Design the sequence.
């Protein structure tokens, strides 16, 4: 077996990477439904503020595993690492070598590596962390519970927002005059929600990056459904976004939800979530596509967990987020 760099511009190679990712993920996650190949490749090749470095494990001329290190331009100190190995090649040290190669290929500014894994139960994620991640120097930073909602069966009564606040829903992007404010809220989601030991800082999303992300989803055949609560003076007080695909077997996913601190306690989070879910239900009736919605939140985020429970979301998976600090920048 040898490790080699993989080129993002090589469509045939990315097809092999896609096949490995599907086989490995289906083996680990019961009922997982992938994006179609062209949509997944579009995500790897898109210019949406992320740089990706891929490395592959090749044996007898065939790709048996790969790892990718991804760094965002707004978080240059953090490299996300993801590794996938064909089930038949697992437990041979291939994943360990791939993770190290992805770390070594990261930019010099990186000071920590972050990874996540989804498995059916919390017990399974704990075992993965103990057996695979901890020997590589990664420690558990956060645990999340993945929950799912059946849109057809869900009881989603809309609630009137407080006086002076309007809730509106938009498909494939909010109007020009709201983009800058929405970008601020998007950049606060990780920073203000509980996230264990990850310690995220606010990272406002520029209008250019916002439009690039919307454009990517459209190329993938997906629709962004965003709901915002706007005060009488035009300020965006709350925002949520979910992304719906054309495949009814693949759940839509919630990109994020945030209520600005000064507007919390008035039910705006629930109001925008319900508005987006109702729009997703209607979109599905008119255009087909997802009939279920998935989201997750840190297990310490009692507010969001309570809202999701009230709306009828039920647990389906567990996620663990792990991190490892570099001794010094540029020294994995």
Sequence:
């Amino acid at each position: 077996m040898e490790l080699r760099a993989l080129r993002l511009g090589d469509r045939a190679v990315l097809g092999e990477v896609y096949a490995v990712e599907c086989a490995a993920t289906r083996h680990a996650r019961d009922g997982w439904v992938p994006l179609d190949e062209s949509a997944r490749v579009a995500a790897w090749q898109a210019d949406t503020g992320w740089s990706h470095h891929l490395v592959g494990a090749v044996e007898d001329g065939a790709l048996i595993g790969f790892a990718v290190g991804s760094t965002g331009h707004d978080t240059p100190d953090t490299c996300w690492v993801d590794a996938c190995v064909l089930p038949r090649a697992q437990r041979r040290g291939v994943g360990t070598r791939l993770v190290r190669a992805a770390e070594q290929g990261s930019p010099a500014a990186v000071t920590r590596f972050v990874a996540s894994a989804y498995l059916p139960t919390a017990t399974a994620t704990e075992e993965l962390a103990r057996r695979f991640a901890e020997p590589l120097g990664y420690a558990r930073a956060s645990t999340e519970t993945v929950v799912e909602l059946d849109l057809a069966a869900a009881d989603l009564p809309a609630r009137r927002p407080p006086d002076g606040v309007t809730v509106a829903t938009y498909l494939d992007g909010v109007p020009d005059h709201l983009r800058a404010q929405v970008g601020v809220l998007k950049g606060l989601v990780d920073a203000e929600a509980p996230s264990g030991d990850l310690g995220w800082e606010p990272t406002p999303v520029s209008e250019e990056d916002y439009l690039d992300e919307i454009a990517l989803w459209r190329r993938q055949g997906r629709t962004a459904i965003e709901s915002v609560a706007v005060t009488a003076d035009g300020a965006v007080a709350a925002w949520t976004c979910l992304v719906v695909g054309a495949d009814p077997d693949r759940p839509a996913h919630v990109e994020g939800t945030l209520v600005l601190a000064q507007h919390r306690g008035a039910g705006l989070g629930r109001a925008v979530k319900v508005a987006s879910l109702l729009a997703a239900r209607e979109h599905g009736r008119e255009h087909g596509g997802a009939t279920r919605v998935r989201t997750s939140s840190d297990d310490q985020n009692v507010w969001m967990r309570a809202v999701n429970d009230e709306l009828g979301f039920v647990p389906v998976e567990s996620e663990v987020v792990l991190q490892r600090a570099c001794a010094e920048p540029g020294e994995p």
About this structure: DSSP finds eight helices and twelve strands in the chain. Residues 150-316 form a domain with the Aminopeptidase fold (CATH 3.40.630.30). The mean pLDDT is 94. The helical segments are 11-28, 37-45, 94-104, 122-133, 176-192, 207-219, 268-287, 302-311.
